[in-house]
Amino acid sequence: MSNGGNLDLYQDEESSSYTVKLEVFEGPLDLLLHLIRKNEVDIYDIPLSIITKEYLEYIKMMKELNLEIAGEFLVMASTLIQIKSKTLLPTPADEDAAEEEEEDPRAELVRRLLEYQKYKDAALSLTGRDMLGRDTYARSFISPELAEMLPEEEPVEVELFELIEAFRKVLDRVSEESFHEVGAESITIAERINEILSLLEGKESLLFDELFPEHFNRDFLIATFLAVLELCKLKMVKVVQANRYGSIWIQPAVMEGEGSLVDAES
Amino acid sequence: MPNLKSIVESILFVADAPMTLDRLCTFLDEFDRGDIRDALGALQEEYGQDGRGVVLVEVASGYQFRTPVENADYLRRLTKTRPVKFSQSALETLAIIAYRQPVTRAEIEYLRGVDCGGVLKTILEKKLIKILGKKDIPGKPLIYGTTREFLELFSLKDLRSLPTLKEIRDLSETASYEQQEELPLEQPEDDRELL
Amino acid sequence: MPNLKSIVESILFVADAPMTLDRLCTFLDEFDRGDIRDALGALQEEYGQDGRGVVLVEVASGYQFRTPVENADYLRRLTKTRPVKFSQSALETLAIIAYRQPVTRAEIEYLRGVDCGGVLKTILEKKLIKILGKKDIPGKPLIYGTTREFLELFSLKDLRSLPTLKEIRDLSETASYEQQEELPLEQPEDDRELL
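YS: structure for the whole thing
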């Protein structure tokens, strides 16, 4: 394992864009570890007054430099203050409370700091390894020998994340396009009526929510809603709700009269 | 002291095209051209021995490691199981079907904005989607849905285990802390102005 | 009479990912598994000699030809892509996922103390982690784990070869190696005057 020196620990954008050099920390835990190490104090016996003061000074400095202060830093600030005020409380005198043998209010924080330091070290040892594409190289292309032979069958290799990303891209594109050009006529109420009816076909009921996919463009949602209203008006569906806050169900209103509802409609 | 023969061997190994002496010399400009040529010669001899599975051939455009012809039949077996990557259009189409099934070709094409006939055929052949039936609307278009093989490919228990788009969007958006209430920052003493 | 060592060498050479013994045996099903293992051993020895520009490493549960570390500087001139570099946040997140998988985003964020949505998306896109499914707890959060590409990137034979996490006793001498007892966290006494 070579080459551990090749690290670029603080390469986040923030670090370069300000003239005043302010060390960048990965988060409040990182900052706290830094302060503990800098003050050479015992992590199992953190002097909260010193550490809290310096922690808050750091945040103040970020503020003065107009750095965006991530919410986590503020949460930790309040946690520190809370812990500090807890340690200031007098130990309860009565025996009942004493028996409970309360944990040091700092204990949870110490556990988190130690745990975080463990993974910080693990991250460091990862970059110290022989990294593919930095310290060692492999043939990352299809050898000409193989390329010349056409595969006969093609198993597929794909990750779930790629599938979802693909869908997200489609939807991003669609809502943009429909916003600009496609317009309301692309999905007519009549189309949605037919679709709802075919969804209902052979079923006793359909969850109202199922008609409204989570992410779809506004026109689609409006058309769907109007289609349901229209179907109610035509007495082709019933909209029911089991109780006041329960789910809304759609049921075919005509159970008799055989034959497809959709045929009757179209 | 760098080992020139080893360096040339490494370079030829990772290069995806034949490498000329000239190009080698450009990359290794601190070395002598004659020494580089000698290194190539030594490598050719080493890889020229009988029974090697890799040989160093000199083609018109330079030097390249190749496999010997007598092993070609075995390599052909690799191509039979070589996993192919999905094209973006196949992925998009598959994703639309997964999330919108039952769905017609027209609906897919509306969402993608392009013809999908070819892609549909491909993923039908791979058995990742199937024809569920015909939609009872004028024209009676075919409707598509995903198959058991689809679930297996993505190690999904059922369709409900597909992550929702919201879960995926949340990944790129910020931060749970934004949902958080006012911070209890009033403290007794003098640090207050720091905040 | 086919030369098994030569065939294995050819296969490892053209394969674009580490090749497991199992896969080799599937491809070469007319050969004995023991013989294939022997061939691998002979190749490892051959490529393990000093001054070779190609070495045979065990990575991601398989075997792969790679270049030795000492030639990295020269190879960097060749590759158009800049060497991989990871931000501290990506590395920490990867480390947590590697050691604690399957793990949810909330668990990672608790451990790091910061939001990790953006980082997770980046390393998902780089295929270093993958979605393993959903955790069977309220809210059904997604769970993450590392991929074969993760092992390849950090030259790890498998997840078991990750170095053991070091327990920290004292920050000033970061990382003492020995395993540590229970944390002495209950100390009711006299810290109070420090405040």
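YS: worth flagging: Chain C touches chain B through 43 residues (CB under 8 Å).
IM: good catch. Also The helical segments of chain C are 4-14, 21-27, 33-47, 72-78, 88-100, 105-112, 117-125, 148-153.
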